[in-house]
């Protein structure tokens, strides 16, 4: 009863094809957006922005990107952090070489550069499949990190190889650098997430998204019915890398402000993003957000509850954090193997009838 | 012979033995993948956990001492006894069997029939859990591990090969680490034992039957769940062996869990389902990465091993997409 | 047990809601978990034990209790950000992140939040230039001083001439490990030795290639910039190839008991640079026993007391407390703000007499911080491992380093940072 689908009639194709065909979803989505754009910025402080919202939004972009590749096109990738590094270093080089370039242009260009790199590393996917493909992406991961660590040109010859973001303003407000306020950082990320989420949603339900899904379900069969695997796979790699590159760019410019490639973009980060995709739900836009939220929020929550709430020593708490995270992942998989997105779908089913049992 | 050539041979030999160390980790992956189709991401953490447990038992440490002290304000650390290495290894093996039973009961049983990626994910959850659990149980500091394996370069080999270089060459004889030699020996024994076990015992045959075809195995009355416990126990034991070898080399500490990353290219090159593949893959990767570092490292700045292992595996895969020894992928529409 | 610690942590959470500036807050960004825990645990223990001692013995500082808010970073920059943001609202006076990565992250942030950071023997070396890095301190020594100190030691034992000698640097392939390269290159030009660099990737469990290369090339000396498991593996490998240990010298982060013990007797003679003294033969350890250990207020398991990194934690806490004391003196009131704390650190002077009075005679070099010089004297000593007695021994006292080479590098690097970040260096006269 609570979640109502009945009585929602469509009188035109246009209406039938809108992003949220059900009125209930539509209303809630726009309420959320109003909340996110118009309410949260007034209450956000440094802690909430830097520890929760900004990382969540950035990971959401990366997760969307990987979900396009892994969830929609079925190509397993463990190189996400390497591609994020490409985005980050591209931004750094662009920002320091062209100081007057608009920040958003830099972000988009970084994404484009990453897309090129991603496509190159996607080439082996035409031949190698399944878990074996992970090797190609892992090669990308380790090679890219090594490259950015080794070639001084990428970090402008600084003594230690760390890169720090210079300050960039827009409309007189600092967007990057330490002077950027919590609300600005949050809003910049949110705006980019909004646009990218919109793009991802519409790509995946359009022609190209359907060709990806055909490839995912069975590439041979897809080829026979006329889907070009070369185009489908490489476009998935390119678009996925574009998203991940933007995530990497924001990770460096907005979130951390200074990065060291091996530490910030190590293999652990790749795994983390893959976990987000799987926990959220493969092949689901909503799931990408849910997965990112879960893995960003959970450790912060656990830490505050264990160290703050119960007053345990921070190391015992950190160990427990690991254990609880692990146990929760297993628990979720046992209860609902298809991720949080599916859990939400099941909940919707229940809500449809709620509060009446039948 | 020129010194450079001899050094290349030395690098090759050492690469081979480093490869054996990678194979030890990869073996555990293969065993579990064959029997249950699970890509066990937790294998590296299992090696860490086994090694931690071994050191803990040997030194008579009180498990969870830090937690106990934090909760009750006590100051307990160890029981004050020392367990001989062999007995401790036996006890640790028992712990690993117990662990296998728990994994089957708490995780695998509930995930029968799920897609591989879900099972993979579950082992990631398991890895997270074990990392926290192992550290909480035994503490996070570096623990030296000495089970009596010989260490250090073999002087005998060094002295008896120095003449190869001839007069006027800067060649100091081959360097071979005694620990690497024991690892090679242990790995050989392990593989032979595993082969004998799977060829000549009823359980071993059952294992192979399950690996070939789950459904058919079930229909002839093989208990899948029992088989899983057995495979995970064996994999636990292999993890223990890998943990001992790596732990003797570097001390037992958190980074031991990362050796899984060294095993991944080995697996991919050798094929997920083949024990000989894990061995040969290990040797190729070990040899390849060391030789590349020797030849190209000085030119492009070194520290190439991590990525070159994957690139090497990638090159092989382009020609054989199922790995060297993997089962041929047959696709039907 | 550590009721104090629990109370502190609990209070910390309450403070999240309503910042209470009653105590002097010193966040301890520690890592008791993760790949570098073995180095993080003793440091955090030492830091906290010293603060507890001041509270228990002296009743705090100028009547104000010291409060340590411990936050686990796991040596992870992302968690470091979280820790920083969650503690800065509690009136944090000084950060000591114990991670070069986190330090780089905090440098621009603290500048705008105006909270001082002290990075003893790590972090950004050019932060020694106080004119550019107003809120960053890295006394008493930095990596470049460390590199120069080690080379000075080599000069000492070679009678002042190391021309034609070959030196290999085995380093952690990260920002931290790359720090000394530029200095060593300059020094190699000046002293005429040849330098080979050998990177080791994180975590550094496999170093066969690097050590085979060392065995082939037989450098006269091997220097090491390592951290975590990389140290113990390197020392083990050096022992394996029978490299003479007295010619193997690490930076201070490669000079703890954890690094040498796994190799056993083979590690005997290994050397490491240091900027503070070793062992537990100081009056302050008696006080610690009376006021902290015997009362059951020990921060950790209590098994780290007197180890090299425990002492470093102790020393770091001592600097923090002395900085705060100076700040109280300058400000004329006990309840200081982070800005006043900064002024205190900038006017800090560590003398023999002061260390004596603290029960730490000759524990570190004596030095003076100033507006232009946030790096102290940069004096570096050398310690050597004695496997038989299982102790470190200081074999050469804290001696000045080659500022002629280092100062231009610091000036150049800080100028580059100032240009990139758009900072106009303040005048320091």
How would you describe this protein?
With 358 residues, chain A is mainly alpha-helical. Chain A has a domain of 233 residues. Chain A is 72% helix and 2% strand. Chain A contains 15 helices and 4 strands. In chain A, the strands form 2 sheets. A two-stranded antiparallel sheet of chain A has the order 1-4. In chain A, strands 2-3 form a two-stranded antiparallel ribbon. Chain A is globular. Chain B has a domain of 229 residues. Chain B is built from 14 helices and no strands. In chain B, α7 packs across α8, α7 packs antiparallel against α10 and α12 packs across α14. The longest helix of chain B is centred in the first third of the chain and has 34 residues. Chain B is globular. Chain B starts with a helix and ends in a 14-residue tail after the last helix. The model of chain B has no long low-confidence stretch (mean pLDDT 86). The longest helix of chain C has 24 residues. The relative contact order of chain C is 0.16. The interface between A and B is large, with 49 and 53 residues.
For the record, what is the CATH homologous superfamily label of the largest domain in chain C?
Response regulator
Helix and strand run of chain C: HEHEHHEEHEHEHEHEHEHHHEHEEEH
* Average pLDDT metric of chain C: 87
CATH class of the largest domain in chain C: Alpha Beta
Assign the CATH architecture of the largest domain in chain C: 3-Layer(aba) Sandwich
**Rg for CA atoms of chain C:** 21 Å
Fill in the keyword field for this structure.
heterotrimer; A: 358 residues; mainly alpha; two-stranded antiparallel sheet; 4 strands; 72% helix; B: 333 residues; 14 helices; 69% helix; 0% strand; globular
Break the fold down into its secondary structure elements and pairings.
The complex is a heterotrimer of chains A (358), B (333) and C (429).
Chain A: H1 13-16, H2 23-43, H3 46-72, H4 80-97, H5 103-122, H6 133-150, E1 163-164, E2 169-170, E3 173-174, H7 182-204, H8 207-217, H9 219-224, H10 229-256, E4 258-259, H11 261-264, H12 267-280, H13 285-309, H14 314-335, H15 339-353
Antiparallel strand pairs in A: 1-4, 2-3
Helix pairs in contact in A: 2-7, 3-7, 3-8, 3-10, 3-12, 3-13, 4-5, 4-6, 4-10, 5-10, 8-10, 12-13, 13-14, 13-15
Chain B: H1 3-36, H2 43-58, H3 65-72, H4 85-106, H5 116-138, H6 155-161, H7 178-200, H8 202-212, H9 214-219, H10 224-250, H11 259-270, H12 275-295, H13 297-300, H14 305-319
Helix pairs in contact in B: 1-7, 1-8, 1-10, 1-11, 1-12, 2-4, 2-5, 2-10, 4-10, 7-8, 7-10, 11-12, 11-14, 12-14
Chain C: H1 3-17, E1 24-30, H2 37-58, E2 66-72, H3 77-88, H4 100-113, E3 117-118, E4 136-137, H5 143-157, E5 166-172, H6 175-191, E6 194-200, H7 208-217, E7 221-225, H8 229-240, E8 248-250, H9 257-260, E9 271-274, H10 283-293, H11 308-331, H12 338-346, E10 349-350, H13 352-357, E11 367-368, E12 380-386, E13 391-399, H14 403-421
Helix pairs in contact in C: 2-10, 2-11, 3-4, 5-6, 11-12
